[in-house]
């Protein structure tokens, strides 16, 4: 449900439609009348729905949580949400981060246990995906994005995207939005895991084999279901790893910075996530970390007498203290 001040109004309810009118648009209210009100037309124009979108639906309510939908040139449904609803959703995401941090040692223990199984088992493959997301901070991946855009994530990577070396792995591929990802991981465990996976049939980097010997890719839904099973919370998904990683990288930069700035924190998170500093700042750094640069904070307190929590790095323990 939306926050106070906004109304839940989905695109299954009557909305405003648009039609070409010369070089501009004519907008029709749900009752079929033409919208001439200047303020209402200004609100609609501010939504910036691209001219190429088809089957455009626009909310007749300025306080609707969903303001517009339409289909792009690839027939993909696109959404325009009320700014207040986006902020509400972002806050909910960060509210779950402390619970994720507290559960992370449990997640890592379960992953380590499953990776002691046999390559080819479904649990082994799902654990390999989670381990890769955890250590490389990459997206989980979706087959549709790979087909449409030739972009990849943990579940859709192929063997050509990985190079194995002595105690290290190099991942090189095109991520979401065409952003190049080139990262090196130093992990004996992952070297062993991907060495075993490489011996399986199929082109996917990570797969499992059924009783008939057919290889299967892991899907994002399987990864999220496993995480929900481990932490007993449906709100924690593969995406949460990136928010955690971005926040940890930003805090690590704050703890070592001579001059604390939001730009430095954003650049550190962006480097970790293979993203832009703007996106990292807006979507992947916990507000409490940003507040250290905006308002100042006792950084010494964050690292003083930290509990020796197995399964969490020092900066992760400091982050958990900060946001709890």
Automatic annotation (TrEMBL):
Gene3D superfamilies tied to this protein: 1.10.132.120, DNA topoisomerase I domain (3.30.66.10), Topoisomerase I, Chain A, domain 3 (3.90.15.10)
Domain DNA topoisomerase IB N-terminal: 24-72
Annotated GO MF terms: DNA binding; DNA topoisomerase type I (single strand cut, ATP-independent) activity
Presence of the UniProt keyword tRNA processing in the record: no
Pfam families in the cross-refs: Top1B_N_bact (PF21338), Topoisom_I (PF01028)
Catalysed reactions listed for this entry: ATP-independent breakage of single-stranded DNA, followed by passage and rejoining
Keywords for this protein: DNA-binding, Isomerase, Topoisomerase
Enzyme class: isomerase
PROSITE patterns for the chain: TOPO_IB_2
GO biological process: DNA topological change
InterPro entries documented for this protein: DNA_brk_join_enz, DNA_topo_I_N_sf, Top1B_N_bact, TopoI, TopoI_cat_a-hlx-sub_euk, TopoI_cat_euk
Residue ranges constituting the DNA topoisomerase I catalytic core eukaryotic-type domain according to the UniProt record: 85-256
Its EC number(s): 5.6.2.1
Family note: Belongs to the type IB topoisomerase family.
UniProt protein name: DNA topoisomerase
